[in-house]
């Protein structure tokens, strides 16, 4: 396993629980993965270093968690070394690495998405802003860990964000605003273009309760989505399959996990973004509910054998993840704070590090993912919030409303937000 977040801790945990797995290593890992997998050092931005490490460790399968190594070509290097890899080539990872490339693929594939305009010249900005909004959606065209997007009713805020990027020489993407609840649909995709959707989940991206404050990498998530139409998975497949076909047509077939961020608008589902890897924190709840052993599934994806897999088995209950973030996040987080009460089940590590004296301290913005499961969403929420209250992190903060809107019913039906 390559990576160091709570997503990787969740993947390592699921792999460790799979009897087919005889040995497991995580690089670079964190204080949580170290308890389940051999911890190896690696610079994840160097594809050749990852391939060399996998070779020397005699790995049968390499699973790449984050987008950075994938966009840099980690999967290409691992496959070139003759080792199976769960993760797309650098060419296919551009679906996440370049928003302009993603738009181009979606247009060619006939997939519904927001209207967009790429601006690379400050002189053209005001005219372009006039074509959109309010609300305005202004995106950094590069990878930005979910933090490069500003959605605002305030034209001046939109202008300032765009100009800051343009002044640094980075193109910005303006988009029409997609109105409607957002969902994350993860699909396993193999080189034979077999698409296997996982359980849809919902992510809470803003830092504060009630969706206040700036965007983050994700502050919490839950699954399943009781309010969503039964047909959502089928509709998602109809959106993902043409994109998978278009990538193959361009000579960059996708292998791994294709994450569709969808807005369920009154005009039907529209794509907000594609990511080339498991989402964080949604993976923590999706894997908490997955009953099918994970290693076989990831290996089948890596070797193009997904079509031969039996249907996935899911727990009938619900899962909630609450992210405990460091003081200052999503700005510059304070690190080095001592964490207590995190031992035992229900806590996945992200930005953590074990000091030489054995004490676990914070080492990043999103510090822990706290998981609760239960027969329904309300029970899962209760368990997650009981558990997070047992953890101590000076300056730490979390949202208190993860999954809350979806516990409510209006006219007898569950609601999204
Ligand atoms: P992205 O980095 O493209 O995933 O955007 C991050 C977040 O910004 C999304 O999860 C949405 O909440 C919001 N967002 C991005 N694009 C749009 C859009 N066209 N309309 C509405 N909200 C958007
Ligand atoms: N949860 C959002 C992401 O992983 O990009």
Task: Set out the fold topology.
Blueprint: E1 2-3, H1 6-16, E2 25-28, E3 38-39, H2 47-56, E4 61-63, H3 67-72, H4 74-80, E5 84-86, H5 90-97, H6 99-109, E6 116-119, H7 125-130, E7 136-140, E8 149-152, H8 155-167, E9 172-175, E10 182-189, E11 195-197, E12 202-203, E13 206-208, E14 212-215, E15 220-223, H9 232-249, E16 256-265, E17 268-275, H10 282-289, H11 294-303, E18 318-325, E19 347-349, E20 352-354, E21 360-362, E22 366-374, H12 377-388, E23 409-410, E24 413-414
Parallel strand pairs: 1-2, 2-3, 4-5
Antiparallel strand pairs: 6-9, 7-8, 7-9, 10-11, 10-16, 12-15, 13-14, 15-18, 16-17, 18-22, 19-22, 20-21, 23-24
Helix pairs in contact: 1-10, 2-4, 5-6, 6-9
The structure holds adenosine monophosphate and glycine (GLY).
The site of glycine has 7 residues, from loops.
Properties at a glance:
alpha+beta, 4-stranded antiparallel beta sheet, binds glycine, Dna Ligase, domain 1, 29% helix, 5-stranded antiparallel beta sheet, binds adenosine monophosphate
Describe this structure in words.
With 417 residues, the chain is α+β, with helices and mostly antiparallel strands. The protein is built from twelve helices and 24 strands. Helix 1 runs parallel beside helix 10, helix 2 (47-56) packs across helix 4 (74-80) and helix 6 (99-109) crosses helix 9 (232-249). Glycine (GLY) is lined by residues 146, 203, 218, 275, 279-280, 282.
Q: Enumerate how many helices there are, as a single number.
A: 12
Helical content, roughly? 25-40%
Radius of gyration: 21 Å
CATH architecture of the domain at 2-89: 3-Layer(aba) Sandwich
């Amino acid at each position: 396993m390559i990576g160091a977040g709570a997503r990787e801790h969740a993947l390592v945990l699921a792999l460790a629980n799979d009897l087919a797995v005889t040995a497991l290593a995580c690089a670079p890992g964190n204080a949580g993965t170290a308890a389940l997998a051999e911890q190896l050092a690696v610079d994840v931005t160097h594809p050749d270093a990852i391939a060399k490490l996998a070779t020397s460790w005699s790995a049968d399968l390499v699973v790449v968690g984050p987008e950075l190594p994938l966009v840099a070509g980690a999967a290409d290097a691992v496959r070139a070394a003759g080792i199976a890899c769960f993760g797309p080539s650098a060419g296919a990872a551009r679906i996440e690495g370049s928003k302009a490339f993603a738009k181009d693929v979606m247009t060619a594939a006939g997939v519904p998405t927001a209207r967009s305009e790429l601006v690379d010249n400050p002189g053209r900005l005001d005219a372009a802003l006039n074509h959109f909004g309010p609300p305005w959606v202004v995106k950094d065209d590069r990878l930005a860990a979910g933090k490069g997007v500003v959605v605002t009713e305030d034209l001046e805020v939109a202008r300032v964000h765009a100009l800051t990027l343009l002044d640094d020489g980075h193109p910005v993407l303006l988009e029409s605003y997609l109105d409607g609840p957002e969902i994350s649909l993860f699909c396993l995709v193999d080189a034979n273009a077999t698409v296997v959707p996982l359980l849809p989940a919902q992510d809470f991206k803003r830092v504060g309760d009630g969706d206040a404050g700036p965007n983050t990498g994700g502050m919490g998530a839950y699954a399943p989505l009781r309010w969503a139409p039964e047909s959502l998975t089928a509709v998602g497949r109809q959106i993902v399959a043409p994109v998978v076909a278009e990538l193959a047509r361009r000579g960059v077939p996708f292998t791994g996990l294709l994450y569709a961020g969808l807005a369920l608008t009154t005009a039907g589902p529209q794509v907000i973004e594609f990511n080339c890897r498991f989402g964080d924190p949604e993976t923590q709840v999706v894997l908490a509910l997955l009953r099918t052993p994970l290693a076989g599934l990831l290996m089948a994806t890596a070797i193009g054998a997904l079509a031969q897999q039996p249907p996935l088995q899911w727990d009938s209950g619900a899962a909630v993840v609450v992210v405990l973030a460091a003081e200052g996040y999503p700005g510059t987080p304070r690190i080095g704070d001592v964490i207590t009460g995190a031992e035992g089940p229900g806590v996945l590590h992200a930005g953590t590090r074990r000091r030489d004296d054995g004490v676990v301290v914070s080492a990043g913005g999103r510090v822990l993912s706290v998981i609760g499961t239960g027969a329904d969403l309300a029970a899962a929420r209760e368990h997650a919030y009981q558990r997070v209250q047992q953890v101590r992190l000076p300056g730490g903060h979390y949202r208190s409303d993860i999954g809350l809107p979806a516990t409510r019913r209006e006219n007898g039906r569950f609601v999204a937000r």
